[in-house]
Amino acid sequence: MNDHNSEGTAPQTATTKFMAAIFEDHERAAQGAQAILILEREGTLSILGIAIVERGPAGQLLVIEAPNGPSTEALTALLSKLGATLSRLPSQAYGVLSNLEGWGDLEDFGVTPNFIQALTTAFQPAKTAVIAEIEEDWITPLDLRIEEIGGQIMRTWRAELEAE
Description:
Blueprint: E1 15-23, H1 26-41, E2 45-55, E3 61-68, H2 73-87, H3 91-94, H4 103-108, H5 113-122, E4 128-136, H6 140-149, E5 152-157, H7 159-162
Antiparallel strand pairs: 1-4, 1-5, 2-3, 2-4
């Protein structure tokens, strides 16, 4: 679920989006997080929030590095719903956001059920992911860095919801 155009290389207008980079292990995920931080220092993208999570052997979401950054509320909501979906529990039972009642609340943050479903399908047990809210002008630099490390990258846009 990349957001490439037909050539896969043209710059995009900077907009807020969620991205998930899924890796085979924690070491590669740490390298992926480092690559994202380097891209931010280079001015290629901006990080609003970033976290590292692992899917445990029983399918549960384990937070390795809690969300951090200048704005983590939306990322925390995404992780709450992801954790609840993976564990098949109500979002409130997962406990990250006690006031997250359902999809309507999550959609207020720009997260669609389709993105959560695609993420739960790709994020298999024993894998580790870097999940972040970012702004980027061009998708290719991040795609190349993540793919070099062996990760699979997914994105979903938030722009339409922020404009309301």
